[in-house]
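can u pls check wat happens w/ S-adenosylmethionine
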Amino acid sequence: MTETAPKISTVSSRPTMDESIFRKFVEFIYDTTGIKFDDNKNYFLTSKVNHRCDVLGLKNDIAYYDYITTNVDRRTELPKFIDIITIHETFFFRNEPQLKAFERDVLAPLVAAKKLSADKKIRIWSAACSTGDEVYTTVLQFLKNNWLADINLEIVGTDISQQAVEDSKKAIYAQYGVRNIPSDMLKKYFKDIDGKRFELDESVKKFTKFSVANLKEQSDIRRLGKFDIIICRNVLIYFDANSKEQVLWNIYDTMSENSLLLVGHSENLYSYKHIFRSDRELASAFAYRKAPPGTEKLHV
Ligand SMILES: C[S@@+](CC[C@H](N)C(=O)[O-])C[C@H]1O[C@@H](n2cnc3c(N)ncnc32)[C@H](O)[C@@H]1O
């Protein structure tokens, strides 16, 4: 008789978690981040939770749930959990047509107006910047057009993920991230470390600041101040109507009457006309202005 190897039951070998504990995690994630996990996310969440159980030596998902909700060390663990359950897909010069419209119809007139005014400061906020690619793409657009001579530019990148913010500050990118950067720019502003990793130059980084901020938290957002332009792309898709409304009002607070909000090409705000109105002339840049004051909060 041949002997078969005993089955080792590690936490990682369990395919999906029970419905009741999955629901608890979904609710916790929603309350903390505003992200709505669908029922089909059980496998994804199980694999992430199992990984953290293995790292921490916890016996199962229930033990991990207790750990992040009640343990004294939960403040240290929570950022790690958020890092692994958020999707950080991004790359330089994402969506070329939208960026061209942004440069031509939004940035160029703003720069022209600021050059004529006494106030030469332009503040831009990338509201869910992931690893910084979107932030640095915007700086590269300024550099390409020689707009920085008499403009005082500050681009603030924020994200809920601590790891993403750290990576933004490091600004070392793999081939995947830089593949759309025109080769002359890649050569000029990046150091090729080993043919696989590219380090961004200080001459680009110096216009930027990064910090952790949860779009759902009013206090995180208010401390950022006011912006001329807010770029909020490819993150609203993760929120339900309630979270979206909460996040949009938080963004609203960072804008003056002339500020513009730019969203992703698949993220229209037609259901939020009481907060933002699409600027028809800037439609190809997916730009919105604040709705007139006095409108009611519908969902929150
Ligand atoms: C798919 S990336 C988009 C990155 C970039 N804006 C782009 O379009 O290339 C989504 C980012 O949103 C962040 N995010 C998710 N929920 C958030 C929240 N409540 N507050 C701030 N950032 C959040 C994630 O951590 C992730 O880095």
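Confidence is low (pLDDT under 50) at residues 1-9.
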